[in-house]
Amino acid sequence: MNTNHLDHENLTGYIYRTLDDATRESINAHLLLCPTCRARLAEHEQYQRQISNELSATVNQAVPSPRMSFAAISDRLQRRRASWSLWNRVEVSTPVALALAGLLLSLVGLWQFINLRTLTTPSQQFSALPTLACFFFMLASVEEFDKAFYIRPRFVVTFLVAAILWLGTAFIGLLNIIVVRDLAIMAVVAVDGRNATAGPIAIMAVMGAVILYIGLVIGAGEYHYKNIGQPSSWKLFSVTLLVQLFILILPYLVI
Amino acid sequence: MSNLEALIDSWRAGDERAAETIYNLNRERAFRLAFALLGNAEDAEEAAQDALTYALLNIAQFDEKRSKFTTWLHMITVSRSRDILRKRRIPGLSLTDWLSRRKSHPEHTPEPEQKAELNETRNTVWEAVQKLQPMLREAIVLRHWGGHTYQEISEIVGCPMKTAQSRVRLGYQKLAQILAETDLQNTMEVIR
What we know:
Chain A is mainly α. Chain A is built from nine helices and no strands.
């Protein structure tokens, strides 16, 4: 250390106090003997001060416009405040209760699945329980939404999760169209009592659902693309899944 | 108990005037941090307002034993600023934008006063900081403008302390390099 001059890494590390004690000690010893390095260090220190001063001078000149005021957010705070006082306990316990309900339903669904071989009646093979369990989990996640968003995950992760969710909701949307068709047929048979009119009505219902589906897939896709990683985008995914899962279990509720 | 801690307790108990005071005490600082990271007053206001709203709405989550309020607020502000930077990076591919572009909309341009203000505030170091990669810019701004410790920087940007130290050092080295290049260019222009 005493024969060679300090390199750039060591100099910047010394100034920023990022070196370990042993290296720092050895640099101190070198600086005592080397006027060249002392001069270089002084130069760096001067440079560092200049950066701090000029950056602070520029940034501290910036002042927010009057639009950025407390008045602009006080309504939101008041609404939240009201919900705190009224529903504080309910708000805290609801997601837990919903998640527990979802867990219980998924365990029952799993039990049914394990025993599937022993079941003989076809209607028993298609249980709504797993879907219902997902529905409860989604309800719990929507309830919890605003609470953990001050740190965002890495962009690649965000992008992948958003893409998977978008494809997933698009796929469940296709299943929803089938459910809508079945519901239309069930409704016609229940009202009319004849199967003959059910066909055209089902086709019309499917066409309407397909148009709505295309619009929603494109519209929501664009919204998520523009707001990727934002709480509003995640919330829209949750609400979409919630509605989709609800449509999937509708036939079981109707029957 | 410090004044800010007392205000936070009052806001937790439901005193809205305390929330207003907390807001006003931190308004400029949050804005300036976002401004330093984004280099643009309009985006900085959006990020800072969003961060302050989040912090006040979720004050129950703030744990004074773990960090200072300013560190927590800066963490939220950095996160919001990153969102805006990501938005800028995403190419503007939009069906509705394409449709609305067919209707004539005047482009947003800063007011003359704003323009003058922006020109006035520009200096070489500022321009060099804006040229840094976002994560190095965060480290440099938090260290040189915010005066945060490495521990605080690591909490704010969400990385280990050693990484925070490396980012500050690397940021400084890059900054020095950019400034040296700018100096050289200026000298060349003078010679010509």
